[in-house]
Specification:
Elements lengths: L7 E5 L2 H4 L22 H5 L22 H15 L3 E5 L2 H4 L10 H16 L3 E7 L5 H7 L7 H15 L6 E5 L9 H5 L9 H26 L4 E8 L2 E3 L4 H23 L4 H9 L10 H7 L4 E6 L3 E3 L23 E2 L5 E2 L1 H15 L3 E5 L17 H19 L5 E7 L19 E3 L11 E3 L1 H11 L6
Parallel strand pairs: 1-2, 1-12, 2-3, 3-4, 4-5, 5-7, 6-8, 7-11, 11-12
Antiparallel strand pairs: 9-10, 13-14
Helix pairs in contact: 3-5, 7-9, 9-12, 13-14
Length: 474
């Protein structure tokens, strides 16, 4: 027994990391557009350096990215050549509503995504659409402060109403928010939030998250009303937290870390604030303000499935233990001495994926979907211009093997797998181009130069065989 016959193999991208063309087609400016590469990126995405415009002192990789805006037909044709069953993409909110609060949508933006969906259909690829993938219009940030304002819910639902109705003949798989728990770690990137001196950052983050949770539940209701065939998922950044030792203090800290990670999904999947979160938020004076009816909205409209990203597990030591920290990711973690690490310092832990799958499925008993998993690496073409990325094949092989075991031996219900990313694009965390994930090499360098030509890496042919054999040949 292996993967189900209709298992959804594919790849995942985000509009802000691949499209470019941010000044074309009537598109407006978004938070992710003004996140620069370089040393200031961390301060901007965490909301500690206010940046709502572009300046001449920084480089903004989203301006061109890999120019998927003009290359999408070629890119989707290559996805079709690999045999994709599904393509996870996101909608750039500001292509549809340039400032976020318009009454009427931008028809040119709607036509662009319609053409993408038609291209997918040509190759038998189902779209899996993330409605908001680290994406908030600058217009809404300037007027309302991003998701700290409850008024964002109505603007988001107006977007959803347009998307669900315009694309009901093309899309039945939807995700409401990408990595919703990242609002706690990168609040400007995740929710368009920046902080002023003296503000209670925790209170603002949890209030904004509550607004997103209510918006997600109402969007789920709307999706089901527009088309009963629609399936709506939540999405979070996953990765089990291991205690650094069996010292009870380490175990306790790891448990708390897992709870923080699951908190928002607990709400989206179960329909209520879990008691551990309610108690801690109240104790810390940061429990969000709720409107009458919010609890009922959350309760009545849970998601249909749970999707998540998995790049690595985390290793948690008690405060003051002096353990060496692992690098790379936005999540703080002690360095696990039993694991290898990527060029960016991320732990490589295939068994951790099996553990994570089991923990999530045990917790929710809803279908799961791995919508991001991959290896960021520096790919250097050889003298023939070919990229022999055996290291990526090895990484993906081991992770797919682990998820296959979770399905076959542990009984986990898994809908599909979309690798991050099928094509090289801009890194969300670092803003780099040299941190490549794709099966398809894009001739675009860190300095912005390059022809933007596409070429197949060795992993392209490997993944094609994986899909062709439904994961039997790895």
């Amino acid at each position: 027994m292996g993967f189900q016959n209709n298992f959804l193999w594919g790849g995942a991208t985000a509009a802000n990391q691949c499209e470019g063309g941010i000044f074309e087609g009537g598109r407006g400016l978004a938070n992710v557009d003004v996140c620069p590469s370089g040393s200031d990126r961390g301060a901007v995405i965490t909301g500690h350096l206010k940046m709502l415009e572009m300046d001449d002192a920084h480089v903004y990789p989203a301006i061109e990215a890999i120019d998927h805006y003009h290359h999408f037909k070629e890119d989707i044709r290559l996805f079709g050549e690999m045999g994709f069953k599904v393509y996870r993409l996101s909608i750039a909110w500001t292509r549809i509503f340039p400032h976020g609060d318009e009454e009427e949508p931008n028809e040119e933006g709607l036509q662009f995504y319609k053409e993408i969906f038609e291209e997918c259909r040509k190759y038998g690829i189902q779209p899996l659409v993330t409605i908001s993938h680290f994406d908030c219009p600058i217009g809404l940030i300037k007027k309302y402060g991003g998701w700290r304002s409850r008024e964002m819910i109505d603007f988001y639902l107006h977007l959803c109403d347009v998307l669900f109705n315009r694309y009901k003949d093309y899309v039945t798989y939807w995700l409401t928010f990408n990595e919703i728990n990242m609002i706690l770690h990168a609040p400007f990137m995740g929710a368009g939030i920046y902080f002023e001196d003296g503000e209670n950052e925790e209170r603002i983050k949890y209030q904004a998250a509550h607004h997103e949770l209510v918006a997600s539940a109402l969007a789920t209701r709307m999706a089901h009303e527009v088309n009963p065939e629609n399936k709506v998922g939540c999405m979070f950044a996953a990765g089990s937290a291991y205690p650094y030792t069996c010292k009870p203090e380490d175990v306790w800290e790891a448990l708390k870390t897992d709870q923080e990670n699951y908190f928002f999904v607990d709400v989206q999947a179960r329909g209520y604030y879990p008691s551990y979160a309610s108690a801690r938020l109240a104790k810390n004076g940061v429990f969000p303000v709720m409107e009458p009816g919010d609890k009922e909205i959350l309760k009545r409209h849970p998601v249909d499935f749970i999707s998540f990203s998995y790049y690595n597990s985390r290793c948690i030591a008690a405060p003051g233990s002096g353990r060496e920290e692992a690098g790379g990711n936005l999540f703080k973690s002690a360095k696990n001495p039993y694991l290898d690490f990527s060029e960016w310092g991320w732990p490589i832990d295939p068994l951790g994926l099996r553990i994570t799958l089991n923990q999530i499925y045990d917790r929710y008993q809803k279908p799961l979907f791995i919508v991001e998993n991959g290896l960021g690496a520096v790919d250097i073409p050889n003298e023939n211009g070919e990229v022999e990325d055996d290291y990526r094949i090895d990484y993906l092989r081991r992770h797919i093997r682990a998820m296959k075991t979770a399905v076959e031996e542990d009984g986990v219900e898994l809908m599909g797998y979309t690798s991050w990313a099928p094509i090289d694009l801009i890194s969300a965390g670092s803003g780099e181009m040299r941190k490549r994930y794709g099966f398809i090499y894009v001739d675009k360098q860190e300095d912005g130069k390059g022809t933007l030509s596409r070429s197949r890496k060795k992993s392209f042919y490997w993944y094609r065989k994986v899909i062709e054999t439904n994961g039997e040949v790895l």
